[in-house]
Amino acid sequence: MRASDLDLVVQSENLSLQNPWTKRVFADCLRSGYECWVLASRDRLVAHGVLSVGAGEAHVLTLCVHPQYRGKGYGRRMLRHLLEKGYRKGGEIAFLEVRPSNKTAISLYLATGFVQVGERRGYYPAEPGETHREDALILSRALPL
């Protein structure tokens, strides 16, 4: 991922996620040296992901597949790439948070060896007009793949 990709990354986030990251958040990730990656097809961004690594832990901070490209294995491909990068940078264990309502993502993570290790109550912001914040499932797996 480069600064020149950020408009397309944010566009995909806005189409895909209930609480998308802003361009500034992605720019901060790039500046901080996080593993920031895109998967592109010609002029279309297919998927993107961000991973932080430190103290033997790799954290998948975001993983997103553009709605037009879902169900074709791009999410799995991006996840594997991020985890491989995390391992190469010294990660021994990987973590991520996911909404319990995101059944597709949960299926992907479980199929790639993640298990639930905890829960964060009220982690995700409430939807407009809602008062209930959604919890997050904390998933983890050992590295390497």
SSE layout:
Elements: H1 6-16, H2 23-32, E1 35-41, E2 44-54, E3 57-65, H3 74-88, E4 93-98, H4 103-111, E5 115-124, E6 134-142
Parallel strand pairs: 3-4
Antiparallel strand pairs: 1-2, 2-3, 4-6, 5-6
Structure, described:
With 145 residues, the chain is α+β, with helices and mostly antiparallel strands. It has a single domain (3-142), classed as Gcn5-related N-acetyltransferase (GNAT) (Aminopeptidase, 3-Layer(aba) Sandwich), CATH 3.40.630.30. Helix content is 31%, strand content 36%. It contains 4 helices and 6 strands, in the order ααβββαβαββ. It has a 6-stranded mixed beta sheet with strand order 1-2-3-4-6-5, with helices on both faces. The radius of gyration is 15 Å and the shape is globular. The mean pLDDT is 95.
Poorly predicted runs of 5 or more residues:
none
Helix fraction?
Answer: 25-40%
Return the CATH topology: Aminopeptidase
- What's the CATH superfamily, by name? Gcn5-related N-acetyltransferase (GNAT)
Please state the overall shape, judged from the principal axes of the Cα atoms.
globular
Q: Tally the beta strands.
A: 6
